[in-house]
Amino acid sequence: MLGLLLARAGVHVTVLEKHRDFLRDFRGDTVHASTIRLIDELGLGAGFRSLPQSRLTNVAVPVPGTGLVTLAAFDALKPPYNYVAMMPQWDFLDFLASAAAAEPTFTLLRESGATGLELDGGRVTGVRYRDAGGAEHVLHADVVVAADGRHSVLRQAAGMRAREFPVPFDTWWFRLPRHASEQGEVAGVVPSLGHRDAMIALNRTDYYQLGYLAPKGSDARIRAGGVERFRQRVAALRPDLADRVDSIRSLDDLHWLDVKLNRLRRWYTDGFLCIGDAAHAMSPAGGVGINLAIQDAVAAAERLAPDLRRGQVRTRTLAAIQRRRSMPTVMVQAVQRIMHRVVFVPLFAGRLSGDVLARDRARAGLSIQRLAFFIMRHNPVVKRVLPRVIAFGPRPEHAPGFARPLTVSPATKLEPMTSPTDTAVDTAAARARLLELIKELAVVRGKVILSSGAEADYYIDLRRITLHHEASKLVGQVMLALADDAGIDFECAGGLTMGADPVGAAVMHAAADTGRAVDAFVVRKAQKSYGMGRQVEGPSVEGRKVLVLEDTSTTGGSALTAVEGVRKAGGNVVAVAVIVDRDTGAKEKIEAETGVPYLFAFGKDELGLA
User: Fold this and answer.
1) CB 452: neighbour CB atoms within 10 A?
2) Scanning 200, 499, 511, 566, which has the fewest C-beta atoms within 10 Å of its C-beta?
């Protein structure tokens, strides 16, 4: 993915692939909605949807006496991103490689395994690799990116050591045949909880891909028990598959995965960057590893491309990539660690099973596991938010403007939308065009004094954007999509006069263009002492969900004043959103003082500002 994006930026990029092809079985195969949307933004949606795949529309757990209980219903999300695509990873990688091969500056070297790094005075200047014939080569580069997985050779060569978190289980992958009568279009991920073990089944076209989960360190014990004992374990967890366990011919059919959960404190050094599992190995819990890695690639491409075109990759650019992707990495790993403690540790200790989840509260104490299970099943907020969190993850990335196909119409001449996929592509086009306009019109270089009293080397005058004949419409589209992507449902949009006034109006009109009713409002700096004595002007916000807007924020003071005014008027503030975040602490302050999410469309790094 990173190679494809950089090649579309006109950068000469080489990808080293250790093997002759991508045909390694039992790799992760869940392509989440965030990645599918990215594929659409790259103009590759039709080709992607033609690949062999099935659609996972929900995550369900079998509970004795109840049947399958749905925990996350993806089909409740807005189409076309209301499912997780299930496909063999080799098909997905072949697809990306073919798309990249169409770019004249892209090269893929197969059977070329990286062996080490080239250094010059402490800076990484290239990579050493070995070809199929065993010959050693050196490939010089302005930057080397390690995307070589949890056992990264290049990370080790750079002397980087990851912080390891405890993981209570390992996974043994294998396959069982799937009868013709069981085949269909619908994908399934079916977990089965046993006594001190578990199994997950993924429905392929003509076979089941199964993962047997047991306590970490069990490999020798499982293999010592022999194939017949393993068949019995499988049959006990999935009695419906007992008629085909003989297809496990020997324990050589098991592919052991040593599950790891770790991350680097620092992902980069001069001329070198780690992304994906090389920077942060993820647990299989949630199946998010591939998608998190792809988001890393998008963030890296957007920030590396300008430096690479200039011929010098700055260390601060590499640091900016880590800053951009650290938050979602830490959040996902924190959730996985909680899942390990709440689900897998008690499972392998014999304290959790499907029977435990099904017990009547009157007959058993209320365990934390059953409480969490009850909340996921019955709490309407969790049921609405959980599918989006899994499908998109925290801070999903959009395709950079330079990577979009040239066939996408300019944002000034948007054609009527003909399908949800067109909407996704046009949103990406609007975002890219708005970024261009901000860079061109709003960034003023030179010494200035900010409203906070601090001195800066630049000023971002977003009124040149929010009141611009072309940019205003784009502001509405981008800010509306920003809230939608974060799962923020709101009825009113506005903020402190006067910076937020045109932003609220733009969002109101963008919503109306999509058939949605969103009212705008204005918050005065102080309550009027005459007339109706209001501080919040416009349609009433009382009892309504409110998105507080601002064009840019340095200290967060304007947004905090707006939040306070809205709450006094009886409004329910659900989030604060700004067009440009200056990375000066506003996010942390606003979230701490208001308790609501802080969203921003563009960071200062995207504007090329230090």
Assistant:
1) 15
2) 200
